[in-house]
Amino acid sequence: MPRPTVARVDLDALRHNYREASRLAGHARAMAVVKADGYGHGIAAVAKALAGEVERFAVACLEEALAIREAGLGQTVVLLQGVHAVEDVATCVRLGLEPVIHCERQLDWLAAGNEVPAFWIKVNSGMNRLGFRAAELPAVMASVRALTDAGRGAFLGFVTHFAAADDPDRKTTESQTRYFQDAVAPWPEALLSVGNSAAHFRVDQPLFDWSRPGIMLYGASPMAERCGAELGLKPVMTLESELTAVRWLNPGDTVGYGETWRAEQPTRMGIVAVGYGDGYPRHAGTGTPAAINGQRVRLIGRVSMDMLAVDLTGAPNASPGDRVELWGAEVPVDEVARHAGTIGYELLTGVTARVPRIYSGAEPDTGH
């Protein structure tokens, strides 16, 4: 029999979350961000499941866009990091991809191409990773106009990215929004896109023409100190395995590498067939929650490559072969992430290839 560790992916929950993103976006339209292999859920399955409702997908790089095309889908795909070589420009034209241009080198590559795709311009409003500052935009847009006046390509609009939208108490997002609006004001015909997942949950935050929901599509929270369920989202991935062994520990017994946990009283312990080789975080320490048959238990000791230990006090009738949820509906991925000192994004995208994805929720007939 195959190893019992699997990631169950609920495509109906995915569609629910996209519809919630669309509702929260108001007058803006929502392009679905499916980068990083659909945040670890499988980019082809995710894109197919959303294809009946999504006009635009967004990805980080050309390889991810190719995966969408290889899945037989014809929606426009936005390349959030733009192109990485001059030859990519022709690929964008051929496949109907829209690169986001963030530097002079990429502008030069557009100008060097025989054909030019439709494209966006990125504004650096304070994230300070990629994009043009406001003072640079007049020169950038002069180059853009030279292209479009010659009938080469089509300028679609401007995008920016928020640095701290997940924290409702910080004013950074308001400042970035004002900076962005002022920077792009000379080009009122341009489409505007600012809204990451967190921006959908900020009161009175304008999302303009296109929002870009990502992590919220997969049921995890983009907001600090809140779980996805509190935001009306449904978990899409359930990481689960089984108990493979149960034993009693005597007072003084230790568990696992480094002897980091020691029993203070007789303790019934279970071993679960999952570890950091599957993408479960090694830095999830004692006390991290899991669930067995709906009952909460806690991790004890260090996570190993292929297994971890749990204290079965909370599930006294648990026995080998019982299902263990590492995260999902009973144990939110955001809660596990907090115990591991990280975020749900990292856990979902970190589930390794040796964990089979098992899909539920029929994929619609996309017509592509």
From TrEMBL:
GO terms for molecular function: alanine racemase activity. The active site is at K35 (proton acceptor), Y257 (proton acceptor). InterPro entries: Ala_racemase, Ala_racemase/Decarboxylase_C, Ala_racemase_C, Ala_racemase_N, Ala_racemase_pyridoxalP-BS, PLP-binding_barrel. It holds the Pfam family Ala_racemase_N. The keyword ATP-binding does not apply. Its EC number is 5.1.1.1. Residues 236-360 form the Alanine racemase C-terminal domain. It is an enzyme of class 5 (isomerase). The keyword Phosphoprotein does not apply. Its cofactor is pyridoxal 5'-phosphate. It catalyses: L-alanine = D-alanine. Substrate binds at R129, M305. The modification N6-(pyridoxal phosphate)lysine is found at K35. Transmembrane segments: none annotated. Keywords: Isomerase, Pyridoxal phosphate. Pathway: Amino-acid biosynthesis; D-alanine biosynthesis; D-alanine from L-alanine: step 1/1. Belongs to the alanine racemase family. Catalyzes the interconversion of L-alanine and D-alanine. May also act on other amino acids. This is Alanine racemase. It comes from Marinobacter xestospongiae.
